[in-house]
Amino acid sequence: MLEAEDRKQGDDVSEDHAVGGIAADRLRSIIERIERLEEERKALASDIKDIYAEAKSAGFEVKVIRQIIRIRKQEPADVEEQETLLDIYRRALGM
């Protein structure tokens, strides 16, 4: 399949097959894209950390905010089931 793609690209076939039939340019492109996304992820993580710091300085409890975010990602039925079980366990322990 790579050979057919190489033929479509023209005369660069010899450059694409640098080592052992691996399309070096394609591999390099994939790796560079992953590296760019990793950098973006790092920047986003830093932004999120800054927002948590902002929330903390505004008097909000960061642990609770993290819990709310985790809950909002779940399906409503799953949240309801967990809350019901938590309530049952608390009552069983006299809490």
From TrEMBL:
InterPro entries: GapR-like, GapR-like_DNA-bd
Coiled-coil blocks: 27-54
UniProt keyword terms in alphabetical order: Coiled coil
Source superkingdom: Bacteria
GapR-like DNA-binding domain boundaries: 23-94
Similarity section: Belongs to the UPF0335 family.
Protein name from the UniProt record: UPF0335 protein NFI88_10460
